Amino acid sequence: MLNLTGKNALVTGIANNRSIAWGIAQQLHKAGANLGITYLPDERGKMEKKVAELVEPLNPSLFLPCNVQNEDQIKSTFETIRDQWGKLDILIHCLAFASKDDLSGDFSQTSRSGFNTALEISTYSLVQLSGAAKPLMTEGGSIVTLTYLGGVRAIPNYNVMGVAKAGLEMSVRYLAAELGAQNIRVNAISAGPIRTLASSAVGGILDMIHHVEEVAPLRRTVTQLEVGNAAAFLCSDLSSGITGQILYVDAGYEIMGM
């Protein structure tokens, strides 16, 4: 029943085979979506080569550099989508960054530049990319982003990223309210802790994962592909009445009091 054939999907945030974005891309491809992949460019082209080799089996029809701190690259990305695809149906936002120095120690000592960078990349980029996608979603669409429990509760060593995720979740609601008139749905998946390149910057990530495995109702944490399945659902017609929501995919950990 879950069929994304004929849908054009742009996936951001793939860094390696542990990325949650990679799990999402695989499941969108499995459901029949036509994929476009963006990567974070670097001077030596290492990321381009790594991501290109990883996603090759998914046969993406677009493979584009896109640093969300670069307005020209964002503009170029969506102009290419317009010229080559004509429309966009799905936007997957898996972008987050905070300096490792701002993910430990006292939150009150967060640097001004670190705070601004975390919110620009992790929060504002959703607003930015959604605004660019809006005119291309001429037949409606689905926008999905990734959040974490640290956006609603204080989590050790999450610090400024918790503030960024709180802002991201509120952005989901405001974007859903704005874009709903065009039949564009906006939702977030709050995934349980997964060992990824991004999460490795969070001190004690392995302890967090082990704690979830002990406490969560399912007595385990989740996988990238399980998050990918949830994302594919949110991008499909099966979720046509769902927007502005935070869907927890965390083996049930969020419901527990102790």
From TrEMBL:
Keyword Lipid biosynthesis: yes
Known EC number: 1.3.1.9
Pathway: Lipid metabolism
Entry GO MF terms: enoyl-[acyl-carrier-protein] reductase (NADH) activity
Enzyme class: oxidoreductase
Keywords, sorted A to Z: Fatty acid biosynthesis, Fatty acid metabolism, Lipid biosynthesis, Lipid metabolism, NAD, Oxidoreductase
Keyword Nuclease: no
Chemical reaction(s) catalysed: a 2,3-saturated acyl-[ACP] + NAD(+) = a (2E)-enoyl-[ACP] + NADH + H(+)
PANTHER family from the UniProt entry: ENOYL-[ACYL-CARRIER-PROTEIN] REDUCTASE, ENOYL-[ACYL-CARRIER-PROTEIN] REDUCTASE [NADH], CHLOROPLASTIC
Annotated family: Belongs to the short-chain dehydrogenases/reductases (SDR) family. FabI subfamily.
Protein name: Enoyl-[acyl-carrier-protein] reductase [NADH]
Organism of derivation: Nostoc flagelliforme FACHB-838
